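thread: overnight batch results

M.L. [08:02]
morning all. the overnight job finished for the chain we discussed friday. pasting input first so we're all looking at the same thing
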Amino acid sequence: MAEPVARDFDFLQMKRGGQLFQQHCAACHGKQGQGANNWQRRDATGKMPAPPLNGTGHAWHHPSKVLIDVIQNGTQRIGGNMPPWKDKLSEPQIRDIIAWFQSKWSDEIYTAWYRNEKNSKK
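M.L. [08:03]
and the structure it wrote out:
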Protein backbone atom coordinates (compact mmCIF):
# COMPACT_ATOMS: atom_id res chain seq x y z
CA MET A 1 0.00 0.00 0.00
CA ALA A 2 1.19 3.51 -0.82
CA GLU A 3 2.10 5.94 1.94
CA PRO A 4 -1.07 7.89 2.90
CA VAL A 5 -1.14 11.56 1.96
CA ALA A 6 -2.27 14.36 4.26
CA ARG A 7 -5.88 15.40 3.80
CA ASP A 8 -6.24 18.62 1.84
CA PHE A 9 -8.85 20.19 4.16
CA ASP A 10 -9.15 21.28 7.76
CA PHE A 11 -11.59 20.52 10.54
CA LEU A 12 -13.65 23.71 10.14
CA GLN A 13 -14.08 23.12 6.41
CA MET A 14 -15.15 19.55 7.10
CA LYS A 15 -17.58 20.72 9.81
CA ARG A 16 -19.17 23.31 7.50
CA GLY A 17 -19.39 20.69 4.78
CA GLY A 18 -21.08 18.22 7.12
CA GLN A 19 -23.75 20.75 8.01
CA LEU A 20 -24.34 21.60 4.35
CA PHE A 21 -24.38 17.92 3.40
CA GLN A 22 -27.03 17.14 6.00
CA GLN A 23 -29.11 20.11 4.84
CA HIS A 24 -28.87 19.56 1.08
CA CYS A 25 -27.56 16.08 0.25
CA ALA A 26 -28.40 13.54 2.96
CA ALA A 27 -32.00 13.03 1.85
CA CYS A 28 -30.72 11.25 -1.26
CA HIS A 29 -27.13 10.24 -0.44
CA GLY A 30 -27.79 9.14 3.18
CA LYS A 31 -26.76 10.78 6.44
CA GLN A 32 -23.30 9.20 6.30
CA GLY A 33 -22.98 9.42 2.52
CA GLN A 34 -23.77 5.72 2.17
CA GLY A 35 -25.96 6.20 -0.92
CA ALA A 36 -29.41 4.94 -1.73
CA ASN A 37 -30.34 1.28 -1.41
CA ASN A 38 -29.63 -0.57 -4.65
CA TRP A 39 -27.75 2.46 -5.96
CA GLN A 40 -26.21 0.37 -8.75
CA ARG A 41 -29.60 -0.53 -10.26
CA ARG A 42 -31.91 1.75 -12.18
CA ASP A 43 -35.07 2.74 -10.35
CA ALA A 44 -38.65 2.43 -11.64
CA THR A 45 -38.15 5.57 -13.76
CA GLY A 46 -34.98 4.15 -15.35
CA LYS A 47 -32.66 6.49 -13.46
CA MET A 48 -29.75 5.60 -11.24
CA PRO A 49 -30.32 6.25 -7.51
CA ALA A 50 -27.91 8.44 -5.53
CA PRO A 51 -24.53 6.70 -5.19
CA PRO A 52 -22.51 6.52 -2.00
CA LEU A 53 -20.02 9.31 -1.44
CA ASN A 54 -18.31 7.69 1.55
CA GLY A 55 -15.62 5.90 -0.47
CA THR A 56 -17.61 2.75 -1.22
CA GLY A 57 -18.91 4.02 -4.57
CA HIS A 58 -17.20 5.63 -7.53
CA ALA A 59 -16.98 9.30 -6.47
CA TRP A 60 -13.31 8.90 -5.55
CA HIS A 61 -12.49 8.09 -9.17
CA HIS A 62 -13.31 11.68 -10.17
CA PRO A 63 -11.07 14.74 -9.80
CA SER A 64 -12.34 17.82 -7.96
CA LYS A 65 -13.34 19.61 -11.16
CA VAL A 66 -15.70 16.75 -12.07
CA LEU A 67 -17.16 16.51 -8.55
CA ILE A 68 -17.76 20.27 -8.51
CA ASP A 69 -19.34 20.18 -11.98
CA VAL A 70 -21.71 17.35 -11.01
CA ILE A 71 -22.81 19.19 -7.86
CA GLN A 72 -23.18 22.53 -9.64
CA ASN A 73 -25.00 21.20 -12.70
CA GLY A 74 -26.64 18.02 -11.40
CA THR A 75 -27.12 14.84 -13.36
CA GLN A 76 -30.54 15.47 -14.90
CA ARG A 77 -28.84 16.53 -18.14
CA ILE A 78 -27.31 13.05 -18.40
CA GLY A 79 -30.36 11.07 -17.29
CA GLY A 80 -29.88 11.16 -13.52
CA ASN A 81 -32.00 12.49 -10.67
CA MET A 82 -29.68 15.02 -9.06
CA PRO A 83 -30.79 18.63 -9.48
CA PRO A 84 -28.28 21.40 -10.14
CA TRP A 85 -27.09 23.19 -7.00
CA LYS A 86 -25.24 26.12 -8.60
CA ASP A 87 -28.00 28.57 -7.67
CA LYS A 88 -28.15 27.36 -4.05
CA LEU A 89 -24.55 26.54 -3.15
CA SER A 90 -21.43 28.59 -3.80
CA GLU A 91 -18.25 26.91 -5.00
CA PRO A 92 -16.64 27.28 -1.54
CA GLN A 93 -19.70 25.58 -0.01
CA ILE A 94 -19.44 22.78 -2.58
CA ARG A 95 -15.76 22.35 -1.72
CA ASP A 96 -16.74 22.12 1.96
CA ILE A 97 -19.26 19.37 1.14
CA ILE A 98 -16.60 17.49 -0.82
CA ALA A 99 -14.20 17.81 2.15
CA TRP A 100 -16.86 16.31 4.43
CA PHE A 101 -17.51 13.26 2.29
CA GLN A 102 -13.80 12.82 1.62
CA SER A 103 -13.32 12.68 5.40
CA LYS A 104 -15.30 9.42 5.24
CA TRP A 105 -12.81 7.88 2.80
CA SER A 106 -10.15 5.47 4.00
CA ASP A 107 -6.52 6.58 3.73
CA GLU A 108 -6.08 4.15 0.84
CA ILE A 109 -9.05 5.56 -1.11
CA TYR A 110 -8.09 9.19 -0.38
CA THR A 111 -4.49 8.54 -1.46
CA ALA A 112 -5.66 6.98 -4.74
CA TRP A 113 -8.00 9.94 -5.33
CA TYR A 114 -5.23 12.41 -4.48
CA ARG A 115 -2.88 10.86 -7.02
CA ASN A 116 -5.60 10.98 -9.69
CA GLU A 117 -6.34 14.59 -8.72
CA LYS A 118 -2.71 15.60 -9.21
CA ASN A 119 -2.50 13.76 -12.54
CA SER A 120 -5.67 15.50 -13.77
CA LYS A 121 -3.97 18.89 -13.39
CA LYS A 122 -0.96 18.05 -15.59
